[in-house]
Amino acid sequence: MNISFENPDKINGLMTLTFEKEDYQPAVDKQLKDYRKKANVPGFRPGQVPMGMIKRQFGTSVKMDVVNKLLGEKLYEYVRENKIQMLGEPLPSDKQKMIDPEKDETMEFVFDIAVAPEFKAEMTADDTVDYYNIEVDDALVEKQVDMFCSRTGHHEKVEAYDPAQRDLLKGDLRELDAEGNVKENGITVEGAVMMPEYIKVEEQKNLFNGAKLGDIITFNPRKAYPDNDSEVSSLLKIDKEKVAEMTSDFTYQVNEVSRFVKAEVNQELFDQVFGKDEVKDEAAFRQKIAEGIKEQLAVETDYKFLLDTRAYIENKVGELQFPDALLKRIMQNNNKDKDEKFVEDNYEASIKELKWHLIKEQLVAANEIKVDDKDIKNVAIESARAQFAQYGMTNVPDEYLDKYADDMLKERKNIDSLVDRAIDVKLIAALKGIVKLNEKTMSLDDFNKMMQEK
To answer: InterPro entries, from UniProt (predicted)?
Structure first.
């Protein structure tokens, strides 16, 4: 067996693997003997089928199976031992000669191999990267308090509808005929729930202003929601396809008016948000909210730091030469259901991500970053905690978070992203300890505006 590798321009490699008969024949003979032991051929007892018959029937396919397996093993073994940073999969070269598996004993395989460009990515104390601290001010805390009060509030019954309060109405709908009388066999919906505040047409919306229990309002659902067939369909309990032909007026008799009342800032709210007796007064409640906001925002500012570090070091590394023609072939091979336009449209973005991937690999190696199961589990737990926090659930028990994280880890599709996140967490911490941080303080609104612009 002989393996040679040519790489004159450093990024386009040509690997040639030559197998002689003695390289693969022992494995072929062994597999054919196994076939003979198991072969079930009429007229022969098990294990007694002539080897000549076995070779004629299975010889060529077994030979190619053995050679293909050997080919893969030796190719990747050579790449690994010679530390070739291969991009994507090797592709058969146009220099490949035809092989007759039945006749040829010596087989030569030629592959094109895309090789990563050589460069050095390094961050030192001489490098300066912006780091944003988001100011947790009273207004931000107040907004969070209001959110908790809203999420733990309740509805209470009132006598009259007030549009400023976004009250909820419950009543009976009845379809009218052209003369304004209740239509015989018309649509009737009992206990229909409405929030007039969301009616788009002011003329129709205003009909409900000041409505009291027992009042009967005449309105036109189609005119009230001219651009929302789904709303009309849901309100009248009819198929969406029938909305277009629905032009009737309806009466709505108000049977109930409910008003949403926010929770009070008291011990009951403290316990609901942070757990029984974790917080004893409003000052401590606001302080704990501020601390929670700061922790959540630290994730955002660290993410921004990683983005800025990426832009900084990509600029520092400069332009890199890639084997474009070969990488486009690989991309096309990996997306066989797509046409050439897909490759052309997406190649530039793919190369941008590839450059960052190669840079990140060097940074991870230079800082000896490794992640284990515990690191990945911690990231899953923090991800679960963040998801619950979005819904105002800040006192989720640790055992529940632990179970939620375990469920995430059971899904194979989640593993790669969790591993990447675990690596990012450690990389961010390492880089923050190396580079000079140009710290800046700004409001959350300004930070969000900056991120949207990016």
So the answer is: Trig_fac, Trigger_fac_C_sf, Trigger_fac_ribosome-bd_bac, Trigger_fac_ribosome-bd_sf, Trigger_fact/SurA_dom_sf
Does 207 share its domain with 292? no
391 has a pLDDT exceeding 70: no
Domain of residue 325, CATH code: 1.10.3120
Indicate the angle between helix axes 412-432 and 373-390, nearest 10 degrees. 100
Q: Model confidence over 32-72: pLDDT tens digits?
A: 888 777 776 666 767 767 777 777 877 888 899 999 999 99
Residue range of the domain that includes 85: 2-115
Provide the whole-model pTM. 0.71
Residue 394 contacts residue 144 (beta carbons within 8 Å)? no
pLDDT digits (tens, 9 = 90+) for 248-268: 999 999 999 999 898 999 998
- Let me know if residue 84 belongs to a domain: yes
List the structure tokens of 358: 């190669």
| pLDDT of 219 over the 80 cut | yes
Within a domain: residue 273?
no
* Residue 140 within any structural domain of the chain: yes
Q: Within a domain: residue 69?
A: yes
